[in-house]
UniProtKB/TrEMBL annotation:
Organism superkingdom: Bacteria
Protein name per the record: Glucokinase
Keywords: Kinase, Transferase
Source lineage: Bacteria, Pseudomonadati, Bacteroidota, Sphingobacteriia, Sphingobacteriales
Listed Gene3D superfamilies: 3.30.420.40
Residue intervals passing through the bilayer: none
The keyword Transferase belongs to this UniProt entry's keyword annotation: yes
Native species: Pedobacter nutrimenti
GO molecular function: kinase activity
Amino acid sequence: MERIVMGIDIGGSHITAALIDLDLKKEVEGTWVRDRVNGRGTINEVMDAWTESIAKVTSAYAGEVSQIHIAMPGPFAYKKGVSLIKNQDKYRSLYGKNIKDMLADRLNINTSAIHFMNDAACFLQGEVFTGSMNGYDHAIGLTLGTGLGTAHYVNGQAKDADFWKMPFNKGIAEDYLSTRWFIKRYFELSGNTIKDVRELVEKYAGTPEFKEVFAEFSQNLAAFLYKFIRKKMPLASVIGGNISNAEQYFLDDTRRNLAEMMGYSFPVRKSLLNEKATLIGAAAAAIL
């Protein structure tokens, strides 16, 4: 079995790629690449950007790379390699196109060398493989950012739980557990417009509205975790994504709120691997 494979994380505005040593469970030094991508670009612009980044990784390594494992946001036909993303602010030009065939053609490799997997599932797979869920045989994962990613790990494999659209409060879960909720709610409370959670922390940490918005978020996150846990009955959970970088303002409260609902303390951990989790999880699929 090939023990050095390429892991790739495709985001709405970036691509991150590296070679992963599956024995050492970490990236091969000097192969890490992160590039901006215009997710609203034409299909050729997007494919050119991805191909260029992949070529950078390949050229940084003397050996051969026989497998490429790509973490991709949904909706996506992962086995076939066809993008089904349409009503989103990214990759609309790829809708209905066979990305696997197009990439293989541009990279001059066989389509059998390219594999796609859901990005939230890859995140959780990476955390189980060598991160904060290592040692657990049954876990759930959340990525909190522009959108809400949810995954469930059982029987040695992580899969997309697809709970972002779960009915929640007056809408769906993603309405309350994403960057857009923070932007909307903070504006309602303070009249101030923010770009994202990072700006909220940098400019307004400690203000009454800041404390209120994070208190509400902690309650929402605990309520969602409670529903998720009741449906899947995992042993632990892990949280990643950009919003998790503000963990000091909500994670302890989330644990406390959840413990009140559950009647006992349930493990809710922050990602150990952060951005590397998704790459490592994608690559780990090579040995599953």
